[in-house]
Write a structure and sequence with these properties.
The complex is a heterodimer. By secondary structure, chain A is mainly α. In chain A, helix 3 packs across helix 18. The longest helix of chain A has 31 residues. Chain B is built from 20 helices and two strands. In chain B, strands 1-2 form a two-stranded antiparallel ribbon. In chain B, a hairpin with a 4-residue loop joins strand 1 and strand 2. In chain B, helix 13 runs antiparallel to helix 18 and helix 14 crosses helix 20. The radius of gyration of chain B is 21 Å and the shape is globular. The termini of chain B are far apart. Chains A and B meet through helix 16, helix 17 and helix 19 of A and helix 5, helix 6 and helix 7 of B.
Chain lengths: 483, 487
C-alpha cells in the first residue's frame, strides 16, 4: 500500500478552512456582523452532510476517515451547531464580540478537533490538538472588552497548554526513539510482536497523558480551568467544556485502544489515583464557589474524572462508555450554558449563585430547565447523567475495581451538593428578581433539544449506547483482526 | 387497550397524563390545576382498587406481570408485577396522594403548579418502586423519588426546611449508593437485573453478608432504623403537611418493603445471620423513639419520633421471621401509614390556622374544635393500639409472632407500647384538655376539604381494626412463600 493522496477524504476539513478564511478576509468589508453567523451555521449544517457522505479512506497514513471518526465528528458537529446558536444569542447582547473572527475561530478549532478524531498517527494528533486549542486561546482573550481578567485566563490556559504540548513532544520523542514510528496501529503491532521495554512506552504514555490532562483538566493540571472558564465568553466556556473535552477524551481512547492496546491494563492502573483525585478535588472545590461558572468549571473537572473511570476499566465497553459519558456531558453542558447565556444576556449579575435567589418565582421555565440540568449533572435518575454514570460504574466493577467505583460513587454524593445548592437558591430562597427578557428561537432550540435529550437518554439510552459501543467494538476488531 | 393486562402500567403512568395537562395550564389558574391533579389521582386510586379486586388470593407468585424489553444491552427489562406483599401499598399510595391534595387545597399558596407536579411525580416514583421487579428499574424509581421530595420539603416547608431537605437528600443518596454497587455486582455475577432470577442463587457467605449490608443500609436509612434515623425528625417536622404525610405514609414504608422484597428472599442466610443485630436495633428504635417523644415540645417532631418507634415494631416483626409477626409487620406498615399520615394531617389542620407547632401554644382545643378533637382522639388511640383500632391488630400480631422466636426482644418491645400510650395521651391532654389557651379561642371549625380528607382514614382505622382478615388474606400466601426460604 503506497501513500495515497485522496483529497475527497479531507474534503470537510478543506471546506471548513476555506470558509473560515473567507470569513476572516471579508469581515472588514461587511457592516452587518450577523452574516458570519449565517455562514458558519450553514457551513456546520453542510458539514453534517459532508461527514455523512465523505468516503471512508486514508489521506496518507496520517489521516483516516472511517465510521468511528465520522460518528464522533457528527457528535462534535451537533454540539458545535448548538454552540453557534447560543453564540448568536449571546453576541446580540455583547456586540463588541460580534465579529466574523469569532465564528471563524470556532470553525478553525473544529477543524483541529476533526483532525484529532481522524488522525492515525501521534504527530497529526498533536497538530490537531494545537489547531483546536489556539483559536480558543484567542476566543478567551476576545472577551477583554467585557472582562479585564480574560487576558489572565487566556494566558493561564495558554501557558498550561504549552506545557502540555511540551509533554506531548517529549512523549513523541520517546515513542519514536524506541519504536521508530508514529502510526498508531504500527505502535501496537510492534508492541505485540517485538519485546520492547514496556516501561519506557508507559513513560511515553504518561507524557501523552500529561498533555491530554490539560485539555481534560485532570488533576494536577486542572488549575487553569476555573479562571479560563470564568473569563471566557459564556458560549466559549461551553465550547471548552463540551467539545474540546469530548474530542480529547475520544482521542485519548483512540490512542489507548489502537496505539497502546497491549498496555491498556497498566494504563488503567496508572490512571486510578489521577482519576479519583480529579473527581474528589472537582467535587469538593465546587462546593464553595459562588460564581456559577466557576462552580461548573470545577464540576467539569469532576465529570472528566467520571468519564475517565471508563479508561481505568481497560475493556472496550468501558472505553465506549467513557465516550458516551463525555457525550452526555456535552449535551448537559451545552444545555446549562444556554440557560446561563440567557441569564448573562438579560441580567449579568445572576451568574452569581446567591443573586439567583427566588428566580423560580417569576421565571418558572428557566428555573425548571436549570432543575433538569442540575439533577442530571448530579446524576439522579431518571436523567441522562445517571445513566452515563451507571454504565461507567458497571464496567468499572466488571473490571474488578469495586473499591474505585465505591470511592467514585461516594464522591458523587459530595458532588451532589453544589447542584442542590443552586436549586436551593433558585427554588427555596425568597426574593424578587425581575428583568425584561424575550425567548428567541436561538435560545429555545438549544435548551429544549438538550433538555429533551437529557430526559430521553435517562429513560432510554439504548440507541446511543449501542451506536457508540458497536462503533468502538468494530473499530478495534478492524485493526486487530483484519480479514 | 386491554386494561387488565396492563393494569399496573396504567396505574403507574396515569398521573403522567395529569402532569402533561398541568404543564399546559396557565400557572395563574390555580383552581384548574388543583382539580386536574385531584381528578387524575382519583382515577388512579379507582384503578388501584380495580387492581385489588382482581387479585388472586391463592397465588403466591407475582400477578399482573408485565415484561417488556427495555435495555437489551444490559439485559434489563421493563418488568412489573405485584404480589401479596406489595399489592396493598399501591392503593395506600394513591389514596395518600389523593388526601394530600385535598388537605393542602387551601394551605399551599405559592407555586401551586410545581406543588401538584411534584406530588404527581412522587406518586409515579413510589408506585414504580413498589411494582418494579427489575433491579435497575427499581433503583431508578427509588432514586427518582428524591427529586420531588427534595422540592416538596425545601420549597413549601417550615422555617428550617433547607437544612432538613438537604439532610434528607444527602442521607438517602448516600444510602442508595451502596445498593447501586450491590445491584451492579449482582448483575455482573449473574448477568441479569431480573429479580425473580436472582432468587436462590448461591453466594459465598462472606459475599452474601456484604450484599446484605449494602442493601440493608439503603433500606435502613429510608425506614429509618436507629442510629441512621436523624434525618427523619428534621424532614418530617419541616415538610409541609402533604410532605409529612407522604413521608410518613408511604415513603418510609419503602425501606421496610425493600427488606421484605429484596433482602430477605435474596439473602436468606445473611438475613438469618444478622437477625440478632436487626432485632436489637429495632428494640432500641422502639424504646429510644418513645423516650424521645416524651421530651418533644413540637407537635410534628413528636409524631416524627413516634414514627421511629413504630417502624421499630415493623422491622422487629419482619426479622422475627415467622408468618404471624411478618403479616403483622406488613399490616402495621399500612396502619402506620394511615394513622401517622392522619395525625400529620390533623397537625396540618391546626398549623394552617395558627402557624405554630409548639405543644404549649395550644390547650383546650377540645372546647373550640370538638369534632376535630374527636377525630384526633381516634387516631391517638389507634396509634397507641387500642383494641378495636387497626394499631392494636398490627402490634398484637407482631408481639405475638415475635414472642415465638425471641422472648427477650418481645419483652422490651412491649415496654415500647406502654411508653407509646404515655406520650400520645400526654400529648392529647396537653393540646386538647386543660384551660383554653387564648391562642386557640377563635379558631374556625374543620373545613370540608379537611373533613373529607380525614374521614377515609377513620373508616380505615376501624375497618382494619374490626375485620383485619380482609387485609391479611392478601398477604397470607406470599408471606408463607417468603418464609419458605428460612425453613
Amino acid at each position: 500500500m503506497g501513500i495515497t493522496l485522496n483529497f475527497s477524504v479531507i474534503f470537510t476539513e478543506i471546506i471548513f478552512i476555506l470558509i473560515s478564511s473567507l470569513i476572516f478576509l471579508t469581515d472588514k468589508f461587511i457592516k452587518n456582523k450577523n452574516y458570519s453567523f449565517y455562514i458558519a451555521f450553514i457551513t456546520l449544517i453542510v458539514g453534517i452532510f459532508l461527514a455523512l457522505f465523505t468516503p471512508f479512506g486514508n489521506f496518507t497514513y496520517a489521516y483516516q476517515n472511517d465510521f468511528s471518526s465520522s460518528i464522533l465528528k457528527l457528535f462534535v458537529l451537533f454540539g458545535a451547531i448548538l454552540i453557534t446558536l447560543i453564540s448568536y444569542n449571546y453576541l446580540q447582547h455583547f456586540k463588541a464580540l460580534n465579529y466574523g473572527e469569532y465564528y471563524g475561530l470556532i470553525l478553525f478549532s473544529l477543524v483541529g478537533s476533526f483532525i484529532m478524531l481522524s488522525a492515525m498517527d501521534l504527530l497529526t494528533i498533536y497538530l490537531g490538538l494545537e489547531l483546536m486549542s489556539f483559536p480558543v486561546y484567542f476566543l478567551i482573550a476576545l472577551n477583554y472588552a467585557y472582562n479585564k481578567t480574560s487576558l489572565e485566563g487566556s494566558l493561564k490556559y495558554f501557558l498550561m497548554g504549552s506545557l502540555g504540548s511540551l509533554f506531548i513532544l517529549i512523549g513523541l520523542g520517546l515513542v519514536y526513539y524506541f519504536i521508530g514510528t508514529f502510526t498508531l496501529p504500527e505502535i501496537s503491532h510492534k508492541l505485540i510482536e517485538e519485546s520492547i521495554n514496556n516501561k519506557i512506552l508507559l513513560l511515553a504514555f504518561i507524557f501523552f497523558l500529561g498533555g491530554f490532562s490539560i485539555k481534560l483538566s485532570f488533576v494536577p493540571f486542572h488549575m487553569w480551568a476555573p479562571d479560563a472558564y470564568e473569563s471566557a465568553p459564556v458560549p466559549i466556556t461551553s465550547f471548552i467544556a463540551s467539545i474540546m473535552k469530548f474530542t480529547a477524551m475520544a482521542t485519548l481512547v483512540k490512542i489507548i485502544l489502537i496505539g497502546f492496546n497491549p498496555l491498556k491494563v497498566q494504563i488503567g492502573e496508572l490512571l486510578i489515583p489521577i482519576i479519583l483525585l480529579t473527581i474528589l478535588i472537582g467535587n469538593i472545590m465546587a462546593i464553595k464557589q459562588d460564581n456559577i461558572i466557576r462552580m461548573l468549571a470545577y464540576s467539569s473537572i469532576a465529570h472528566a474524572g467520571y468519564a475517565g473511570l471508563g479508561l481505568i476499566s481497560g475493556n472496550y465497553a468501558g472505553y465506549s462508555f467513557s465516550i458516551f459519558y463525555m457525550l452526555v456531558y456535552l449535551i448537559m453542558t451545552i444545555g446549562i450554558f444556554s440557560v446561563l447565556v440567557f441569564l448573562a444576556n438579560y441580567k449579568k449579575d445572576l451568574l452569581n449563585i446567591p443573586n439567583m435567589a427566588g428566580l423560580s418565582k417569576n421565571y418558572p421555565f428557566i428555573s425548571f430547565l436549570i432543575l433538569i440540568f442540575m439533577f442530571s449533572l448530579a446524576g439522579v435518575p431518571p436523567t441522562a447523567g445517571f445513566m452515563a454514570k451507571f454504565y461507567v460504574f458497571l464496567f468499572l466493577i466488571k473490571a474488578k475495581y469495586i473499591w474505585v467505583a465505591l470511592l467514585a460513587i461516594l464522591f458523587s454524593v459530595i458532588g451532589a451538593y453544589p447542584y442542590l445548592r443552586v436549586l436551593k437558591v433558585i427554588y427555596m430562597d425568597e426574593k424578587d428578581i425581575s428583568f425584561e427578557y424575550k425567548y428567541g428561537i436561538t435560545f429555545l432550540i438549544p435548551v429544549c433539544l438538550t433538555a429533551f435529550l437529557v430526559i430521553i437518554l435517562g429513560v432510554y439510552p439504548q440507541v446511543l449506547t449501542n451506536i457508540i459501543y458497536k462503533t468502538i467494538y468494530l473499530y478495534v476488531n478492524l485493526f486487530f483482526y483484519p480479514q | 387497550m386491554d386494561l387488565l393486562n396492563n393494569l399496573l402500567s396504567w396505574i403507574l403512568w396515569f398521573p403522567l397524563i395529569g402532569i402533561v395537562i398541568i404543564f399546559l395550564i396557565n400557572r395563574t389558574n390555580e383552581k384548574a390545576i388543583k382539580w386536574v391533579a385531584l381528578i387524575t389521582i382519583l382515577i388512579d386510586f379507582i384503578l388501584s382498587l380495580i387492581l385489588l379486586l382482581n387479585f388472586n388470593f391463592s397465588d403466591p407468585g407475582f400477578q399482573f406481570v408485565e415484561k417488556k424489553k427495555w435495555l437489551d444491552f444490559l439485559n434489563s427489562y421493563y418488568f412489573l408485577g405485584v404480589d401479596g406483599i406489595s399489592i396493598l401499598f399501591i392503593p395506600l399510595t394513591t389514596l395518600t396522594t389523593l388526601l394530600c391534595i385535598l388537605i393542602s387545597w387551601n394551605s399551599i399558596k405559592k407555586k401551586v403548579k410545581e406543588f401538584h407536579l411534584a406530588l404527581l411525580f412522587t406518586n409515579i416514583s413510589i408506585v414504580g418502586t413498589l411494582c418494579a421487579l427489575d433491579l435497575l428499574l427499581f433503583y431508578i424509581f427509588w432514586e427518582a423519588m428524591l427529586i420531588p421530595m427534595y422540592l416538596i420539603i425545601g420549597i413549601w416547608g417550615g422555617p428550617r426546611r433547607i437544612y432538613a431537605t438537604l439532610k434528607f437528600f444527602l442521607y438517602t443518596f448516600f444510602g442508595s449508593v451502596f445498593m447501586l454497587i450491590a445491584i451492579i455486582y449482582l448483575y455482573i455475577k449473574f448477568g441479569t437485573f431480573d429479580y425473580t432470577l436472582l432468587l436462590n442463587k448461591g453466594y459465598s457467605f462472606g459475599i452474601e453478608k456484604l450484599l446484605f449490608l449494602a442493601f440493608a443500609l439503603a433500606f435502613a436509612i429510608k425506614i429509618p432504623m436507629w442510629p441512621v434515623h436523624t434525618w427523619l425528625p428534621d424532614a418530617h417536622t419541616e415538610a409541609p403537611t402533604a410532605g409529612s404525610v407522604i413521608l410518613a405514609g408511604i415513603l418510609i414504608k419503602l425501606g421496610a418493603y425493600g427488606f421484605l422484597r429484596f433482602v430477605l428472599p435474596m439473602f436468606p442466610h445473611a438475613s438469618a445471620y444478622f437477625t440478632p443485630l436487626v432485632l436489637t436495633l429495632s428494640v432500641i428504635a422502639i424504646i429510644y423513639g418513645g423516650l424521645a417523644c416524651l421530651a418533644q415540645e413540637d407537635l410534628k417532631r413528636l409524631i416524627a419520633y413516634s414514627s421511629v418507634s413504630h417502624m421499630g415494631f415493623v422491622t422487629l416483626g419482619i426479622f422475627s421471621l415467622n408468618p404471624i409477626a411478618m403479616k403483622g409487620a406488613i399490616l402495621q406498615m399500612i396502619n402506620h401509614g394511615i394513622v401517622t399520615g392522619a395525625l400529620f394531617m390533623c397537625v396540618g389542620v391546626v398549623y394552617d390556622r395558627t402557624h405554630s407547632r409548639a405543644i404549649n401554644y395550644y390547650g383546650g382545643l377540645a372546647t373550640t374544635m370538638p369534632l376535630y378533637a374527636a377525630l384526633f382522639m381516634i387516631f391517638t388511640l389507634a396509634s397507641i393500639g387500642l383494641p378495636g383500632t387497626n394499631g392494636f391488630i398490627g402490634e398484637f400480631l407482631i408481639l405475638a409472632g415475635t414472642f415465638l422466636s425471641n422472648k427477650i426482644a418481645t419483652t422490651f418491645a412491649a415496654l415500647g407500647v406502654i411508653i407509646g400510650a404515655g406520650y400520645m395521651l400526654w400529648l392529647y391532654q396537653r393540646v386538647f384538655f386543660q384551660k383554653v389557651s387564648p391562642n386557640v379561642k377563635n379558631l374556625p371549625p374543620l373545613k370540608t376539604n379537611e373533613l373529607v380528607a380525614l374521614i377515609p382514614m377513620v373508616i380505615l382505622v376501624f375497618l382494619i381494626g374490626l375485620y383485619p382478615n380482609l387485609f391479611l388474606d392478601f398477604m397470607k400466601t406470599s408471606v408463607a412463600n417468603l418464609l419458605m426460604n428460612f425453613k
